[in-house]
TrEMBL record:
Alphabetized SUPFAM superfamilies for the sequence: MetI-like (SSF161098)
Family, as annotated: Belongs to the binding-protein-dependent transport system permease family. CysTW subfamily.
Domain ABC transmembrane type-1: 147-355
Keywords: Cell membrane, Membrane, Phosphate transport, Transmembrane, Transmembrane helix, Transport
Signal peptide span: none
Record has Transport as a keyword: yes
Bilayer topology: Multi-pass membrane protein
Protein name per UniProt: Phosphate transport system permease protein PstA
Cellular location(s): Cell membrane
InterPro entries recorded: MetI-like, MetI-like_sf, Phosphate_PstA, Phosphate_transprt_permease
Pfam families: BPD_transp_1
Length: 369
């Protein structure tokens, strides 16, 4: 019985076993890169020959790159199907398509950053970050008043929006049931899609009725940004609180810990890293808003750090005002606008870096850490 179940090897000694069609051959690691280089070189050569005798500026770099990538997709598919297998060829074709889509999605970001850096770095000097635009008509001046305004308005909006959004998400996940929860979810979804100018008009109308028409101050801008931040914080925090395992809550309840303390000590620390990321996404969503701040915070050439007294300049409004109202020195005003945009991008990058550090510090410690 044992002999009949044993597998007999019919392969003659010294004879190689037949290889599977999926592993019959494999391209060298450098082969796809070589094919890509050859495809791009061929495409750029053809486009260069077509542009001979004309203006060098007419050379279509984007068209040459697209044609080169298409040639590469055809070559890698044909070569892989011959040298490897049909399944591997399809896999390499899909890899090329996904990689090309990633590059296409990345190009606008790279182009944007390159344009802002090249145009804005010329005004990155000590004067630009230490002076305001008070009494400045032509060249010179700085954005210290706009930086202070952006920091104060955004920080105030964050202090207002984050507790409201976080407590709303806690209610929806831990307590909310029935029509009230559904109504809140519906209103949050509606608020997520409202234009930013509507939030500015709402805050302006409220203050015009309660205080006086035509009023502008930093607090109004912070409230307008808070209206835009709340739904983003609610949606992000809600999803993160839902993925906290119920076993952690049940273990806490089994030890006699009340629900509010379980949320405070178990649920929130477990999801603090993701909540911090959602808060940073909300800040990034509103820190570059211009329309609501034009209506609420206004604009001024002087430094103002009082949120409830007079108008306050912010970086988005400074960039808009510098570009639209160029004055007697147009080149200097445009240079200030580009430098202000670059400063705003750097502030967003620093805030995201700070969020990652906070998430790392407060994330739950595991045995391997």
């Amino acid at each position: 019985m044992t002999t009949s179940l044993q597998r007999t090897d019919t392969t003659t000694p010294g004879t190689a076993r037949p290889s599977s069609s999926l592993t019959a051959g494999r391209l060298a690691p450098w082969a796809p890169w070589a094919l890509l280089g050859a495809s791009l070189a061929t495409s750029f050569t053809v486009f260069a020959l077509g542009a001979i005798g004309g203006d060098p500026a007419d050379f279509n770099i984007a068209g040459a790159a697209i044609v080169g990538v298409l040639i590469y997709m055809v070559l890698i598919t044909v070569v892989s199907s011959i040298a490897e297998s049909r399944r591997k060829a399809v896999d390499r074709l899909m890899t090329a398509l996904v990689s090309a889509a990633f590059v296409v999605a990345l190009l606008p970001l790279i182009s944007l950053l390159w344009t802002v850096v090249t145009n804005g770095v010329s005004r990155f000097d000590a004067e630009f970050f230490s002076y305001s635009m008070r009494n400045i008509v032509g060249e010179g001046g700085g954005i210290v008043h706009a930086i202070w305004g952006t920091v104060l308005v955004t920080l105030t909006a964050t202090v207002i929006a984050v507790p409201v959004g976080l407590m709303t998400s806690i209610y929806l996940v831990e307590y909310g049931r029935g029509r009230i929860a559904k109504g809140i979810t519906f209103l949050v979804d509606v608020m997520t899609g409202i234009p930013s100018i509507v939030a500015g008009l709402f805050i302006y109308s409220v203050f015009a009725l309660l205080v006086r028409p035509g009023i502008s101050m930093g607090l109004m801008g912070a409230l307008a940004l808070a209206v835009l931040m709340v739904p983003v914080v609610v949606r992000g925090s809600e999803e993160l609180l839902r993925i906290v395992p119920n076993e952690l809550r049940e273990a806490s309840y089994a030890l006699g810990v009340p629900k509010w303390l379980t949320i405070l000590k178990i649920v929130l620390p477990t999801s603090i890293a993701g909540i911090t990321t959602s808060v940073m996404l909300a800040i990034s969503r509103v820190i570059g808003e211009t329309a609501p701040l034009l209506l609420t915070a206004g604009f001024t050439a002087s430094l103002n750090t009082n949120l409830v007294n007079s108008q306050m300049m912010t970086l988005p409004v400074f960039v808009y005002n510098s570009y639209m109202n160029q004055g007697t020195a147009a080149d200097a005003s445009v240079a200030r606008a580009w430098a202000g945009a670059l400063t705003l991008i750097l502030i967003v990058m620093l805030l995201n870096l700070l969020a990652r550090l906070i998430a790392k510090w407060f994330a739950p410690k595991t045995a391997g850490r």
